[in-house]
Design brief:
The protein has one helix and nine strands; from the N terminus they run αβββββββββ. It is of the alpha+beta class. The chain has a domain of 89 residues.
Length: 143
């Protein structure tokens, strides 16, 4: 009778030892594998909204009008401002006070303080001015 009572206990201990040993062997096998390149599943690439995209810098001089501001030449083309950085032209943020000859299509009128009308394009606010008898646009702020 005692054998029958001990039998379930022996089976339980045997099963526990075998399971523990198998788990240890699995870990040992994993550690002994040669280390090479790890292959990870590619995560889905989430695209940033268009206003957060970084545009690649053009390598050649972009077409546009040269504007000098604080003795630095900028190229103004379709509402974007470029500056020469070591032979490569990159998009830069304009400075308040810069004057451009015209606005690109797609600008919108905005109300400014004291009843003034401004023009906005690409997050830049312009004010219409007269310079040498011609209408031009001066940067007065940002949205």
């Amino acid at each position: 009778m005692r054998i029958f009572r001990l039998l379930p206990l022996i089976m339980l201990l045997t099963l526990t030892c075998v399971t523990t040993e198998a788990s240890t062997m699995g870990e040992t096998i994993r550690m002994e594998q040669p280390r090479g390149k790890k292959h990870h599943k590619k995560k889905p690439h989430h695209k940033a909204p268009p206003h957060h995209k970084k545009r690649p810098a053009p390598h050649r001089r972009p077409h546009g009008v040269v504007i000098h501001h604080n003795h630095i030449p900028y190229i103004y083309s379709n509402g974007r401002y470029y500056c020469d950085r070591g032979g490569s032209y990159v998009v830069v943020r304009p400075s308040i006070g810069m004057i451009v000859p015209s606005l690109p299509s797609g600008y919108v009128k905005v109300k400014r303080p004291h009843g003034r009308i401004g023009y906005a394009f690409g997050g830049v606010v312009y004010e219409k001015i007269t310079s040498n008898g011609a209408f031009k646009f001066k940067i007065v702020g940002f949205l």
